[in-house]
Design goal:
Length: 242
Amino acid sequence: MSTERPGRHLDPDDDDLDRAFGHDTGSVTTRTTPQRVRRGALVTAGVVLAAGVLVVALGTIISSVQNGVGGVFPQPEAALARFDTAARAVDGVRSVEGVRTVKTGFASYDVVSVATAEDGLAPDAQDDLVAALSAAAATTGGNGVRVFAVVQLDTMRVGLSADADVTAARLDLARRVDAIGGVRAVRCAWGTDAPSDEAAAQEVTLQTIGRGAALDAVMAKAQASTRAAFRGATVTAVRPPA
C-alpha cells in the first residue's frame, strides 16, 4: 500500500524535511569549499579595512592633541608659542613675550603676551601692526584657548584680542586719551583680573602729573572719550614713574 498522499508526487531530489513538512522547509544547502573560501576572504578584508580606518582616525586625533590644534585637550603653552612665532613675523614688532596663563574653566584657558613695537611708527603702520597681531590671536587660539596680548606703541599700551573691531576701538581710544594735554602715557586694555572684550571690563589708565583742577579737566576728557567707546569702562589716573 502506498503511503504517498493523494495529489502529492514525491520528488527524488526531496530531502527528509521536504517529505516530513512539505516544500520550502528543506535543509540548508551545504556551501562548497570555494564558497567558504570566498566568504572568509570577504570577512577578512572587511576586518582589515575597519582596522585601517580606526588606525587613521586614532592617528589624526593623537596628532591633533600633540600640536594643540583641534585636539581634545587645550594646550595653552602651545598657543603662546604659536602666537609668539606669528607675532614676531609682523612688520614693526620688535619683541614678544608670553607672560600669563589663566585657567577660566575645566578645559579652557586665556593666555596673554606682551609685544613691543618699534619706536616712532606712523599711525598707518601702527594700524597695520595691531590688525596683524589681532589676526594672529584669532588664528593661534582655539580648542579651549583664547589668545590676548598687550602691545606697546611708544607711550600707548593697547590690549588686543581675536576681535578685530574691539581691538581697533582700543587703539583709537588710546590715541584720543594720549592726545589730551597733560597725559604722559596711557594703557587701554581690560582690567587686571582677566582679559576680556566686554565693554564694561575695559580699563583706561593714564599717567599725568596734573593735580587739582588740572587733573579734573584731564579726567573729564578721558572719561567722555572712554564712555563713547566702551560703556561702563573704568578710567583711572596714576603718577608717572619716578
